[in-house]
Specification:
Helix 3 packs antiparallel against helix 4 and helix 6 packs antiparallel against helix 7. The protein has two domains: 96 residues; 83 residues, Serine Threonine Protein Phosphatase 5, Tetratricopeptide repeat, CATH 1.25.40. It is mainly α and 233 residues long. It has nine helices and no strands.
């Protein structure tokens, strides 16, 4: 007696389902332990990430309180009381608070006329590869300002030439220092041209541009009329 087509299809489905069950059972016998381990490891990693995020938030909140305490003491003219929290933050793993603490320590030292000490604090920021480049560049400029009288002019020029360029966010500040170094070298033409470019750059802060206009004029450069290339030799 011939088997009906419907019976054939039902039989094939049963065989296929049985095969799949056997394959699934074989897979879990062979790899079930490893799958379980992978799932547990993934869950543990996710839990660890959540814990790390929590700890980071807690650490940032604590650092903010510490920094505010230091600023409150400085505002109350108690630099000695601010010294401990600033020193704590200066060793922090949180880049932003570490940089702020080092800058503040340097400013306190500048108020005490401790130029070498302030320069050393700025140098810590300038040499820290984990800090964003604009903050490192500013620290290098402030370090150079503190050290200016003790550095050879060629050292200043080499250190800041890359920052003393139009389009750089610190062009005005770095350019002033480089131009002053040119003057110490007796290179009035280069100093005048650089002061002229600073005076014309609308992105430079007004106070720096005003000084640049005056210095360019003294050096024979018309920083207003467009003759920046003509300077007294």
């Amino acid at each position: 007696m011939a088997v009906k087509p419907d019976s054939n299809e039902a039989f094939l489905r049963e065989v296929d389902e049985g095969l799949r069950r056997d394959q699934a059972a074989t897979f879990w016998r062979r790899y079930g332990l490893w799958v379980a381990v992978a799932v547990i490891a993934g869950l543990a990693a996710f839990a660890g990430w959540l814990y790390w995020q929590h700890r980071e938030r807690e650490a940032a909140a604590a650092a903010a309180v510490t920094l505010q305490s230091a600023y409150d003491n400085l505002g109350a003219n108690k630099p000695e009381a601010a010294a401990k929290p600033l020193a704590e933050l200066a060793g922090s793993d949180i880049d932003g608070y570490r940089v702020m603490a080092l800058y503040t320590q340097a400013d306190v030292l500048l108020q005490k006329s401790d130029l070498p000490g302030a320069a050393a604090k700025f140098a810590q920021v300038a040499s820290d590869a984990s800090v964003a480049q604009p903050f490192r560049d500013l620290a290098l400029i402030r370090q150079t300002t503190a050290e200016f009288d003790t550095l050879k002019p060629e050292v200043i020029v080499a250190r800041l030439r890359g920052l003393a360029a139009s389009g750089n966010p610190w062009f005005g500040s770095a350019g002033e220092l480089v131009a002053a170094a040119y003057l110490r070298q007796g290179r009035r033409d280069l100093a005048g041209q650089l002061f002229g470019r600073i005076a014309r750059d609308e992105d430079v802060p007004p106070s720096i541009r005003q000084r640049a206009v005056q210095m360019a004029g003294v050096l024979g450069v018309d920083a207003v009329g467009g003759n920046e290339g003509k300077a007294t030799q």
